[in-house]
Amino acid sequence: MRKLITASLMAPLLAACAQMGELEPAEGKSLPPAPYGADDPLTAAELLETDPLAAPERSVELRRESEEREDDPFDLPPEG
What we know:
By secondary structure, this protein is mostly helical. It has helices at 2-17, 44-48.
């Protein structure tokens, strides 16, 4: 009986997790002001975009194909 009650209480919460819609500021709050030089403030979606400096793409591929590794003098077997 307890499991049935718990499941019935959790169902609306889980259904609410998958709702998709436009993001809006909380009641009584507003979005940040427009950046210096911009005419309009940024939308919620624009504020969520990652700045390229915050997550740069890797520009150098270290291993393009399978290569033999050089001997590593520090790659020692564990002592035991």
